[in-house]
Amino acid sequence: MAGKRQMGDKWQYTFKRSGILDKPLYLTFSNESEGDEYARKLDALLDRGIVPTEHQAVNRITTIESLIRQYLRDAHVKQKDIEVLNTVSKMVGDKPLTLINANWVDGWITDMKRIHKLKPATIRSKVGALARCTDWGTRKELIVAIDRPLRTLPEGYANYTELDSKLAGTTKTDTERDRRLEPGEYERIVAVIEKGVLPRKLRPYIIEDKEAVRDIFDLALESAMRLREMYTITTDQSNVDKKTVFLDRTKNGSKRQVPLSSVALKIVKRRVENAKQGAIFPWWNGDLSQAYLKNTSNYLSHLFANIFEEAGCGDFHFHDCRHEAISRLFERTTLPAESIMKISGHISHRMMMRYLALRGSDLAEKLW
User: Among the three residues 55, 75, 96, which one is the final residue of a domain in this structure?
Assistant: First the structure.
């Protein structure tokens, strides 16, 4: 709440909000009642994290770091870009925006290969996130980027050339996992879950709510949903009658409706009936903070890593369930790739091209 004091025939009000106001805000009024009324309204806005435009600090956007900071504060940025831009800020945040041109961009990409030895996918991720940030800055007239050097890169710019590999001492390539469940592995994994106990050096680890663990594993194989997408499903998102689940918290930020197979429908229906309201799985309490979600995802990923290890398939990761599910959609249905993309939530055809090979080989078997 604002502090106030009388200064002669005027009244001065002081507003302080850590994390909202960069520094204390001092306002002076000639009338106490007028000042009290304004302070009441401003306090209510500050309590909600809103700083009126006329009271926002005027920051000079001179470096990549200052542009990123403004972008993250004022724009609607996807969580993935937030994480990537934080690493970009640490890497090149002190670079003046006036020096960002094609030569600098090329040099930055070269450094990411030869010095940091990053994979092409990681390089593309950083360049893409910074490009979206500078696009926003240009539109807001915070910066001037006439040639848009982050948007005019040639195809394959992130791939290592022969010289890159020689100077880096290594060649980094994108490794797209294609791990599938081998015959007998599903049964062994389920057996470990049903047993409900994982061996430990000191004492056995008891799997809590093994039915939920089995359900989320089976749902992943049937629906191609990601781990976080599943454990945050609520009863309100589940439409048993229409055999769908509506996802509004996805990795790429786009909402989608997931149709359920008969197996997936039984799982969701049972969990909805048991949950009554709220999340249908027991590991999420509705907290949407990134720290809580990350901890929950890490817990479940670690749990399944131990389950897979005990089942004798330690090189299988939970995310491989998604690859398995999408592969099954191509193998077992006649749905076009575009429809499967809507189910899986992929927004790039490039990501789906490797799955098309499955359908091609299946069709080849039917040719004379």
Answer: 55
The amino acid sitting at 247 is: L
Per-residue pLDDT of the chain (368 residues; tens, 9 = 90+): 788 998 888 999 999 988 788 788 899 999 999 999 999 999 999 888 888 877 776 556 889 999 999 999 989 898 889 999 999 999 999 999 888 899 999 999 999 999 999 999 999 999 999 999 999 999 888 887 667 899 999 999 999 999 999 999 999 998 777 888 999 999 999 999 999 999 887 889 999 899 999 999 999 999 999 999 999 999 999 999 999 999 987 776 678 999 999 999 999 999 999 987 899 999 999 998 888 999 999 999 999 999 999 999 989 999 999 999 998 998 888 888 888 988 988 877 777 776 666 666 666 666 67
Looking at the chain, how many residues does it have?
368
Residue 179 belongs to some domain of the structure = no
Tell whether 174 is covered by a domain: no
Question: Between vectors from CA 103 to CA 97 and to CA 104, what angle results, nearest 5°?
Answer: 40
Q: Is residue 190 part of a domain?
A: yes
* Distance (Å, whole) CA 307 – CA 186: 11
Can you tell me the distance from the alpha carbon of 307 to that of 198, in angstroms, rounded to the nearest whole number?
7
Q: How many domains does the chain have?
A: 3
Range of the domain at 98: 64-168
103 alpha-carbon distance from chain centroid: 31
pTM: 0.70
Q: Identify the residue whose tokens are 């999340």.
A: 279
| CA max distance for the chain | 99
